[in-house]
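Quarterly update from the structural biology core.
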Amino acid sequence: MKKCHQFRRYIMLFCIVVQGSFIAQGCSAESGVQRFQEGVHYTVVSRQAKKNAGGKVSVVEFFSFACPHCYSLEPVMNKWKETAASHVDFSMMPAFWNPYFQLLAHAYYTADVLKVKDKVVTNLFEALHLQGRQLKSEGALADFFVEHGVAKADFDKTFNSFSVKQKVKLANTRFKQFDLKGVPGVVVGGKYFTDVKMAGSREAITEVIDFLVRKSKKEQS
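Predicted structure, tokenized:
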């Protein structure tokens, strides 16, 4: 009876060891599977941009002030920027396919050139989507900028300046280069594209972006 009891103990120990081995193998296999998959959570753009110099990874958010989805994504992206890796080079690029969106693209780059994006971007989003303001002319936008501390003379000098026009042109070139169809959308490393629909939610898109940043950084080395 004693030998039989010991034998049963050996069998139980053996089963525990084998089971543990299978569990370990299962964990290892799971960790080797990428959580985010190409064609599901992100795609590779057909015409890629040059990689950033100095080891930086570009993250470009294409948006429009007039887009309600862009407005709802804005606080999520603002929170993400606070914890983004130091090698991330983040920028926003206004997209447009009609005169109104193009007008708002000029407004964004006017704020950029005048270095007042911190005063204008969030407030312009809120003016359009919370307050329902109709900022559909250069004059209406001039009044808005003045309300936020910009001299009208500075706005008038900048809104249709060569610098702003060039920035608007470059943004449109990039939007077409990546063959994008709408906003909001994010291009990482000039190569990978994702959006809220592919990511699954507004919160999940930042996880996909971080994944693509790590992927792009690894490909640079």
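Residues 1-33 form one domain.
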